[in-house]
Amino acid sequence: MQTVSVIMPIHNEADYLPVSLHSLQQVSFNEYIFILDRCTDSSERLVRQHFPGAHIIVKTACKWKNPLAENFQLGLEASHGNVICTHDADATTPLNLLELLPLLKNNVASVAPRLITCKNGSVWNWLYHYWEKTERFAPLGEQPFGAVRLIRRDCLLKVGGFKDVIAQESLLDVELERLGYKSIIADNMAYIHLRKFSFDKAVHSQIRAGKMRCQLNQPFWRVLGHSALRLRPFVFYGYISEKDKKEKGVDCFQTARMRVPRFAEV
């Protein structure tokens, strides 16, 4: 029998939580784990209001370079389900998400619905909403996005859980592939990304994606092709800047897990 533990890291997400938590309530999971990471807004009140009996971890300090990866690892170590649902606080839950569970067998370790950006947040949301439709036709193919994702616990444990890197889920896919497992996208299902975009956030996101590609040792020609064909110039900038750090001997790819920080369970 498959049991599902939802892990949702939260860092000042009060603008998105009412919609995200309401959608989460519509699906019957076995366990709900919320990591409140140094929240100073009303996020904690909203979580307790929607999920009064949930397992809540209140974190007051961060020990890892990537707080999101640290939060998912904390949630993994506190969970009991044999399937882990990683769930961002600015995403909705598909009502039929659990219909994907039968896909997690044999060599399939992870399955995710398709990402759709909410086009009503700003003009940048509108542009991104239609731009991302080109991804499925891109020459290098679409990759799973981790905002809402089901992952087999046994496979997670085989690769040592989440690691302290910029793109912990991309590294996870690489490590799973090395063990012969696949991460797939469910074309017949989608979730909504609620985050409000701006030009600054779009640039930051591209630079971060470029650094991630460098850390995962993707070839120069592939990153250049992605940046040109997908009209994402700052991905290439991020890749080159991270590559320069590598050549100078800067340790920009910390894969060793650090000590789990102190946290309070409520």
What is the overall number of helices? 9
Largest beta sheet: strand ordering: 7-5-6-4-1-2-3-8
Overall helicity: 25-40%
- CATH fold type of the largest domain: Spore Coat Polysaccharide Biosynthesis Protein SpsA, Chain A
Mean pLDDT: 81
Q: What is the CATH top level name of the largest domain?
A: Alpha Beta
Oligomer: single chain
N-C termini distance:
28 Å
Description:
The protein has helices spanning 17-25, 43-50, 67-78, 123-131, 153-158, 168-178, 199-215, 220-229, 233-247, and strands spanning 4-10, 31-37, 55-59, 83-87, 108-117, 148-152, 182-193, 264-265. The chain is globular and about 50 Å long. With 266 residues, the protein is α/β, with parallel strands linked by helices. Residues 252-266 have low confidence and may be disordered. The chain has an 8-stranded mixed β-sheet with strand order 7-5-6-4-1-2-3-8, with helices on both faces. The protein folds into 2 domains: 4-197, Spore Coat Polysaccharide Biosynthesis Protein SpsA, Chain A (Alpha-Beta Complex), CATH 3.90.550.10; 198-248. It is built from 9 helices and 8 strands.
How would you describe this structure in keywords?
single chain; 266 residues; alpha/beta; Spore Coat Polysaccharide Biosynthesis Protein SpsA, Chain A; 2 domains; eight-stranded mixed β-sheet; 9 helices; 8 strands; 36% helix; 20% strand; globular; disordered C terminus
